[in-house]
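[#protein-structures] MJ: dropping VOC family protein here for a structure pass
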Amino acid sequence: MEKKLDHIGIAVRDLDNSIHMYTNVLGGTLYDRYRSEAAGVESEIAVIDLNGSRFELLSPTNNTTSPIARFIRQKGKGVHHLAYEVDDLDKELIELEKRGIRTLKDTLRTNKHGRRLIYLNPADTEGTIIEYCDYPKQK
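AK: finished. structure tokens for VOC family protein:
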């Protein structure tokens, strides 16, 4: 099945400074800014559009339990994940299972923009955090 890069997630410590960098220095546009306190997310997110490319700037809202806080402690700020849009997430999950690629099942969710997403297990992706997503309501 076809996949295309949907966005790049960037772990940041200071969301306002990062927004400034992406909008005033790089020339991007702030598309949205919101908080998600859902378990396993616990982040403030700024979505930046830069000439048709999307970036999600991810800042932890809970330094104890947020996976973004844990990522920054372990690896520092920077690229957190690559997200690939797929035509049908449910079909892709079946294909992944057939290929022996595990997912982090507790990350399956729908965000406020209607994007369904799940993260693949980094142990099966050479350490890179990869998100698969689709937009079922836009079809």
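MJ: nice. The first strand starts at residue 3 and ends at 11.
AK: one more thing. Residues 15-25 form the longest helix (11 residues).
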